[in-house]
Amino acid sequence: MGQIIQYIRSYLSSSQTPGAAGNMFWVLVYILLVFAGLSVAVIAMNWLERKILAHMQVRLGPMRVGPHGLLQPIADALKLLLKEDIVPAEADGLLFWVAPFVVVLAAFTVFVVVPFGPTHAVTDMNIGILFMLGVSSLSVLGIVMAGWASNSHYPLIGALRSSAQMVSYEVAMGLAVVSAVLMTSLNAEGTGTLSMIGIVQAQQAQGEWFIFKFFPLGLIAFFIFAVAMVAETNRAPFDLAEAESELTAGFHTEYSGFRWSLFFLAEYSAMIAVSSIAVTLWLGGWLRPFANMLGGHTWDQVFSLFPGVTFLLFAAMCFYNTVRMPKHPLFRVQTIGLAGFGVVLGLIGLILFIPAVSTRIQDIFWFAAKVAGFMYLYIWYRGTFPRYRFDQLMRMGWKVLLPLGLGVLILTAGVALLQEKLWHP
Amino acid sequence: MESMLHITTLHYLVLGAALFLLGVIGVLTRRNVVIVLMSIELILNAVNLNLVAFSRLWGGLHGQVFAIFVITDAAAEAAVGLGILIAFFRNKETVNIDEVNLLKW
Amino acid sequence: MAPVATPFFFYLLSGIMLIGGILVITRKNPVHSALALIVTLLAQASIYLMLYAPFVAGVQIILYAGGIMVLFLFVIMLVSIDRSMKERQFNSQWVVGIVAATALGGLFIAVYTKGKDIFPEHALPMVENDNTQQIATMLYGQYMFAFEIASLLLLVAIIGAVVMAKKRI
Fold first, then answer.
1. Residue A258's pLDDT band (boundaries 50, 70, 90)?
2. Which domain holds residue B83?
3. How far is A20 from chain C (nearest CA, A)?
4. Residue of C nearest to A144 (CA)
5. pLDDT tens, residue by residue, C11-37
6. Would you say residue B78 lies in a domain?
């Protein structure tokens, strides 16, 4: 037992990702951790989306299944697993079976290079951002196959529209990414990097997040990516291809039960993946906010209290709502459940105050907090914006975002060259 | 058996040659134009594999740069080829190579 | 990072590529052929990773598997295939094709068995850390002219494909 703890401790103080160190056991552990974290995140997203959307529309959302609907995602998952698996008669068997797996594969493989910290990634590929863009473009294939295999009109049109939209906005995404990668080369040696950990370390070395660099160029590039990533994941306001009032359900009309849940899982994972790209490239990855203006040891201590304080705030909200629960015998189980959940969250918050845990969780906490901010933005867009018509969508992708991306790229390159020549001759 | 465990450049070249052969068989024997175009992509990939294997052997990166250019050209050629296919299909309603014989005397 | 377990992965990936290639040229349904070609291309990207070429692997995944194959799938769906799937699938000169391919195969075997001694025993060492930077230096330095010509080629291809596929010019 002591040997195991020794082994774990000796690993935790290494300075490389497990993939770079060639340590296969820890690679597997990290993959399992990422997988588990992603599943928890998708379940939480399901609940959060329904509750936040409901509150934005001045209603309550799911309240019955658990206290304040907290067990609703579990009920949804059970329902989907128990539903009848309908395969259309004329459907192409192999393609119908393979399509959800391709989409899930593309959405999950991306997380191999997502950096949760300087050594907290499964591996640090030399071509990290290129790999992420490439593998997330493989989900287009899955969608096209799903639409084709259903052998029906609505899925086919929905699939063709979805894939045309995704392919168009990938170009704008790529240009925005290139202008961010350009900013990584503004260091002493003049070499940039495509590796995700390298990009965050470049932001750390240059002392500002790329969203604020060369103001407003970094901001415009971030804006282009933020719009393109919503279109890439087929979310509102770009969800014409799967909107229920337009095309029944688009490319996943004929999928039911477990197969549909795979598409749903892949959609949320893709949302988290492109948000991770945005956070890494422009918002400083795992770096804490105000690292320059509020620097120094005491401010570091203050910011290291944030993880514990966040969970204690969640626990306090749970206890407050427990007190506000109706005092009726039928609500007794829910009240006790909510109080128990609050206790668990409070315990996690207290554990996060321990310095040994807090120093390791810092990076992961800030990264997760920024990605959670993006998830809230996604839900906010869904509750606020009307849907784009398909021709308006394509017009915006090709005629607005693409020239804007090219312009930002050229201007960023020009300003970077000027900076190199004027300040470091 | 020992020589099969140590992967040398020759292994990659033989793999490339096998892919090239499969592509050539596909081009010469299939009727469907789309599958002929996909076999041409197989041929181009076999050539890329050879280029990158030799680049690995001699340590320079010229082979890899050439492979990137080949991939770019393959994209352009696939786009133009499929455009021709669509234009032809619009006229003749078939994707059968044996019926592409308008210039036959 | 150096490749690990090279023989195992090489034989696994080459098996996948060869099976994928055979499926491409023998399937009756073009969509199944396209699927097999996607598998072949992804396996080839993994082999590029084994050959110390991560940038070419990334380009292969983005362009070939994520771009060209999407184009193929779109066109297959636009072109009706139901009638063509019920006909014969090998064309009228398949005998000549097989004979020519066999001759080519014989040529390959002859060349490779005669010349397999010219390769040095071990490959020269290559680092992988700055592969992208070195390729960029070469692309924009030594091969700048070819780079510009390639972009001109892509422009011509875009215009050509759009003009040919339009209904009315």
1. confident
2. 2-96
3. 6
4. C73
5. 999 999 999 999 999 988 888 999 999
6. yes
Neighbours of C110 (CB within 10 A): 10
Q: Please list the alpha-helical segments (H only) found in B31-102.
A: 33-58, 62-92
Q: What is the pLDDT of residues A101-144, one digit of tens each?
A: 999 999 999 999 999 988 888 888 889 899 999 999 999 999 88
Q: How confident is the model at residue A243 (pLDDT cuts 50, 70, 90)?
A: low
For chains A and C, count residue pairs whose Cβ atoms are closer than 8 Å.
77
Mutate to test the interface with C, among B10, B14, B37, B38 (most CBs of C within 10 A): B38
Q: How confident is the model at residue A316 (pLDDT cuts 50, 70, 90)?
A: very high
- Tokens 């990072």 correspond to what residue? C1
* C47 has a chain A CB within 8 A of its CB: no
Q: Which among A39, A20, A19 is positioned nearest to A29, based on CA atoms?
A: A19
Q: What is the pLDDT of residue A222?
A: 95
Alpha-carbon distance of B37 to B22, in angstroms, equals: 13
Q: Is the omega angle on the peptide bond into residue A237 within 30 degrees of 0, that is, cis?
A: yes
Which of the other chains make 3 or more beta carbon contacts under 8 angstroms with chain B? Answer: C
Residue in B44, A259, A363 with CA at minimum distance from that of residue C60: B44
Tokens of C71: 């184009």
Chain C residue whose CA is closest to A134: C62
Number of compact structural domains in chain B: 1
CB contact under 8 A, C69 and A141: yes
> pTM score, two decimals?
0.90
Label residue A152 by pLDDT band (50, 70, 90).
Answer: confident
Using a CB-CB distance cutoff of 8 angstroms, which residues of chain B are in contact with residue C143?
65, 69
Q: In order of start, what are the domains of chain C with their CATH numbers? A: 1-110 (1.20.120.1200), 129-169 (no CATH)
- The angle subtended at Cα B90 by Cα B84 and Cα B92, nearest 5°, is 100
Q: Model ipTM? A: 0.90
Within a domain: residue B104?
A: no
Residue from A356, A315, A388, A353 nearest A161 by CA: A388
Instruction: Yes or no: say if C123 and B24 are a contact pair by the CB < 8 Å rule.
Output: no
Query: Quick check: A145 and C66 CB within 8 A?
Result: no
C26 touches chain A (CB under 8 A): no
Alpha helices per DSSP H over A13-138: 18-21, 24-56, 72-82, 93-109, 128-136
What is the DSSP secondary structure assignment for residue A349, as one 8-state letter?
Answer: H
Residue A28 in 3-state DSSP?
helix
